[in-house]
Amino acid sequence: MMEKMIIGRYVPADSILHRMDPRSKLIIVFLFVCVIFLANNIWTYGILVLYTFLMASFSKIQARFLIGGLKPVLWLVLFTFFLHLFLTKEGAIILDLGWFKVYEEGLRQGIFISLRFFLLILITSLLTLTTTPIEITDGLERLLGPLKKVKFPVHELALMMSIALRFIPTLMQETDKIIKAQTARGVEYTSGPIKDRLKAVVPLLIPLFISSFKRAEELAVAMEARGYKGGEGRTKYRQLSWAVADTLMIVGLLFVTILLLVFRG
Amino acid sequence: MNSPLVVLNDVSFQYESQETPALNHISMEVYEGEWLAIVGHNGSGKSTLARLLNGLQFPKEGTINVAGITLSEDSIWEIRKQIGMVFQNPDNQFVGTTVQDDVAFGLENNGVSVEIMSDRVVDALKKVNMDSFLDQEPHHLSGGQKQRVAIAGVLALRPSIIILDEATSMLDPRGRGEVIETIMNLQKEEKITVISITHDLEEASKANRIIVMNQGEIYREGTPEEIFEMDEELVKLGLDIPFSVKISKKLREKGISLDRHYLTEEELVAELWTSHSKM
After folding, report:
1. Interacting residues of B53 by C-beta distance below 8 A, sequence separation 6+
2. Is residue A3 scored above 50 in pLDDT?
3. Cβ–Cβ of B107/A237 closer than 8 Å?
């Protein structure tokens, strides 16, 4: 189950978004996060909502996957909405309950800010739903490539990320095994007072840490034996290919940005 | 056999934390195209020997020569291209997120161009019969499959020698069978020199030659038949004799004459069911 939460997010399908270069997707998400702050009235928010839904329809991903990804942050969105509703005291009063008044500006702010939140989460989930973690890693490595000139360890960072991704399921399986082994020895993970349950985590984490260090050591030896000597002179098996569609997608977002600049109040 | 591919000359090695040397004045040769099994119980120095051959450790005394190159700090990368190594734990040597990424890892390290790389990845996976698993992730593979991918990763680099450091010891019998069969094919068809480090005499019985190690020294060297003649002596060294060898020994004690020690169950069974007609 935990496995599904972390890396099972990718939904394989054959869509424009799936075929896009991870670099262009990353750039688009980054740009989107910036331009979303340009929206400040109903027209500009309308454009962004339209854009996001257009993207979602491009992805060919079923709505239930998209909504599934939103669930854990739904509380945060609602919280933001009510916070603005209660705390903004501007404009005309539209609801007066005596002890609590809802102002027009409060309602407007609440809707806009939570909508902004909602769109951001939707766009980033579209990225992770249509791109495998390793593609994202590759894309980041290439995008950050220029930083090598200032001695930023781009290659090492990307390798660390990809090894971490590769070992998540392995460590999950191991955690499962240790839980079973400790349960057989009388440790309770699912019942009893919170304090005891927290204590029970210790005999789970210690063996997990020890074995992780052992794995790391063996992996380092195996990598060295296979000729790994750092990023220099290394070639990449996975090639990224930038297609016309990638350029068009970015141009599309730039066009949306211009529209936002024109229509914002 | 052919000319020696690996020559060890009076090699000694000692771990800093230990009082006795792990290897004590070892001299040996590995010939081109042979399958050499190095057997011994835990702590006999057999794994240390494998690590020395690949330059993961350096000998305290003596020299190691691989394919004409003398091992030193400067030549380890050249030597690692000649020697591929498969380790014990199938999980802890799987670097890539998918089968093909893992096989490509060694090629990437050596700066092989992309066009050549994709051919070699598929080619190597075909040789170990894993070519239908290209995009599979490691946690969906069995231990035996992971070890075969590890072998493919080594093969992709076109080495002349493969060292298997206890590569089958963590596998179930089926996985072990798969890996041993793969190795047998490679030795026959690709003419690759195989050095297998193991404490499983069943596996060692498939080799051309066996070296028995004990307390950092070479105890005995010979063909599997010769080594299994040692019998009780092997048990004293902490090694377990294969089932078929035990049976043929017991049969002989009962007065049933067999031609020789039978190394595999098939050989023994064939001898037994035809023995009546020979009498």
Report:
1. B6, B64, B66, B71, B83, B163, B195
2. no
3. yes
